What does this fold into?
Amino acid sequence: MSDPSQIDALMVMLVGAAVVAAVLINALFARMGLPALVGYMLLGILLRLADNQWQFLSEPVMTAFRFMANLGVVALLFKVGLESHPGALAQKLPKAAVIWIGDVCIAAGIGFVAAFYLLNLALVPSLVVATALTATSVGVSVATWDAKGALDSDNGELLVDVAELDDISGIALMALLFAVVPVLLNGDGEFWPTLGGTAGSFVVKFALFILFCLLFSHYGERRLTHLSARLRQPPERMLVVVGVGFLIAAIAGWLGFSLAIGALFAGLVFSRDPEAVKTEKSFQDLYAFVTPFFFIGIGFNIDPGALTQALLIGATLTVAALLGKLIGDGLPSLFLIGGSGAALLGASMIPRAEIAMVIMHQGQQLGPEVVPPQVYAGMVLVNAVTCLLAPLALNPMLKRWPQQENKS
It folds into this structure.
């Protein structure tokens, strides 16, 4: 297909069909009490199989889909940052940090052992897998806690705090890892000095970016929000905030940190301002429109030829994912909130979705030597299985150990 008008028509048709399908998937999976992102990825897999059969997706159409997926990543991470509330998190940091440190270290350690020693993956893919397995998809578990009226309990609030730390640290670890990946892949006799220099350069550049975000947060964000608040229509206020957030994400991408990192920090910049956070409700429509394309893209990027190998990889990494959070969160929680609370927290942290797949997606873009096709497909399986298992486990657990709402 070479006629520009036909290419444009196909682009618009596919986007429209994807949006309608995403709405139907969301409604269907909500009825079943399952996360819709699993359905979005299945849709992407079906689209890839259909294209392999009929080859109807030209390069311009694929470019448009990649652009929509990138918008989905930016919207997803911007929302994560906007909901993080660093000030409130800092007040609860002592208890949450103890659990978070054990969580990240044990989840990463078990993930690396499973990938490097059991699956015999190379060093770099093993490190990417380990980094991805430190993350948590709190939205999957929060929905179950909220349905049981337990989210405002002490343990429910602790769950959200630890998961927020997981998200932020996962993105930070991803940034550091991908900065040193070229050295890890091509290191020579000067490996350690080169690695240290690359890591040092990254830290300096990343610190400057964080400083820029802090300065904008303190001196520019509130003025911008107040200015946008004068606009009469809420969508206009939302578009100003989101537009600036996208610009910050683009700056991070231009600096080599990736759009995902920039979007997360953009959300953090605006999260401390109640006036900006009010735009979140009007942001939901834009978020609902573009985010499914990220997960559809994940499914589409799976190589059908890698699925056979992916089953073994996915099964092994699923066990690692389960043990990493059950032990990593449950063990330190046992001494802080008791046995039932530790079991609930460990089970609630099992799902891997948004941040884990952002890490795998970013790694895949760097090439098969960073994330091989079978590893990518295996992690998609981990994503789906952990997101399905957690609600099934939490429902009876919360029924057995109901959580009292925190009245303070």
